[in-house]
Amino acid sequence: MRYIRYAFLAAIGAVLIVVALANRGAVTLTLLPEPLADLVGLNHSITLPLFGVILGGIVVGLLIGFVWEWLREHKHRANAAAKQRQVHDLERKLKREQRKAVESGQQDEVLALLEQKS
């Protein structure tokens, strides 16, 4: 299975290299359209190779997707943390009740020791 993953990653890498070599032409990216940039006064532009724009767009899209999914799953993580706290509290209460039962003599001491070990 590991070799299949490496082969898949190598194929993706080869495709990215071929796309980069085929799209080496320079393109100019501007922050705003010219009429709006003149009106606002923000006339920023940058010249990059086309493959940089393509790969940068893919990376930015992945990052936005990861952040969106992380924010969307917040309720599930919070629910899991609440359940984990509840389990911890219940385990503490159980141990406290077991100690009380042993101290009051309601439970055999041998059975109490066996329950504490498990």
UniProtKB/TrEMBL annotation:
Pfam families: LapA_dom. Residues 80-107 form a coiled coil. InterPro entries: LapA_dom. The keyword Transmembrane helix applies. Residues 46-94 form the Lipopolysaccharide assembly protein A domain. One of its GO terms (cellular component) is plasma membrane. The keyword Transmembrane applies. The chain crosses the membrane at residues 46-68. Keywords: Cell membrane, Coiled coil, Membrane, Transmembrane, Transmembrane helix. This is LapA family protein. It comes from Thalassobius vesicularis.
